Amino acid sequence: MLCFPRWRDGERDPERGQGNKIIEIVWTGIPFAFVAVLFVLSARTMGISDPPPPPKPDVVLIGHQWWWEVRYMNSVAVVANEIHIPVGKPLALRLDAADVLHEFWVPELARKIKTVPGHPNHIWIQADKPGTYLGFCWEFCGTQHAWMHFLLVTDPQAEFQQWEQAQRAVLFRSLRRGAGIVVQNVSESSATLIAGFS
Q1: How far apart are CA 34 and CA 134, in angstroms?
Q2: pLDDT band with cut points at 50, 70 and 90 for residue 19
Q3: In this structure, are residues 83 and 123 in contact, taking their beta carbons and an 8 Å threshold?
Q4: Is 108 within 8 Å of 101 (Cβ atoms)?
């Protein structure tokens, strides 16, 4: 059983102290030092876990309603809803949105990060083993939001380079075909124009 001192009738009141500067400094200084150490450790950890982006990103992702555009800056390849990255290499991604807010998320590889129209965001991503990961848009972006998934494929370096070259070949074939159509249409328009003046 606990015993507590009790004031009895007729006893005088306890003396009141005017304060003790040493005790006040100690009980203010210790919590302040503790909070300062936590602040420094937190700031250091944030800097290590999310370093600043490089001047030129490796990959640019643009969220559209309701798909992802993926642009590879080193090879000019452009794909949709399928991101390929090499294993073991950290890549800088720049995230943007063409229309409304989106949120890029690959649960096994990266944290959630918002894409805001006109305000690019940056994230580093790295995979340590080959595989295929499912990614999501985690921000409600309209009626077809539930279908805004994408695949993130991590390839060994040699396979990634082969894939990138194949994408570049498809792009150049499309550009040549498009240029041929433009030249043909210009030629037909010119012939029509000349015939009209004859």
Answers
A1: 41
A2: confident
A3: no
A4: no
Which residues does 179 contact at the CB level (< 8 Å), separation at least 6? none
Q: What is the DSSP string of 160-189?
A: HHHHHHHHHHHHHHHHHHHHHHHHHHHHHH
Nearest to 99 by CA among 65, 60, 144: 65
Instruction: Say how far apart CA 96 and CA 59 lie, in whole Å.
Output: 11
Is 45 exposed, middle or buried, given 0-12, 13-18 or 19+ CB atoms closer than 10 A?
exposed
Fold of 59-177: Immunoglobulin-like (2.60.40)
* Percentage of the chain exceeding pLDDT 70: 83
What is the edge-to-edge ordering of all strands in the sheet holding 78-80? 78-80, 67-72, 59-64, 91-97, 121-125
Give the span between the Cα atoms of 172 and 94, in whole angstroms: 24
Residue 118 vs residues 61, 69, 78, 97, 176: alpha-carbon distances, Å:
13, 15, 20, 7, 32
Per-domain residue ranges for the chain? Answer: 59-177
CB-based burial of residue 42 (10 Å sphere; 0-12 exposed, 13-18 middle, 19+ buried)?
Answer: exposed
Q: Is the whole-model pTM more than 0.70? A: no
Q: State the pairing for strand pair 102-105/131-137.
A: antiparallel
Question: pLDDT tens digit string along 112-127?
Answer: 888 899 999 999 899 9
Long-range contacts of 26-31 (CB under 8 A, 24+ apart): none
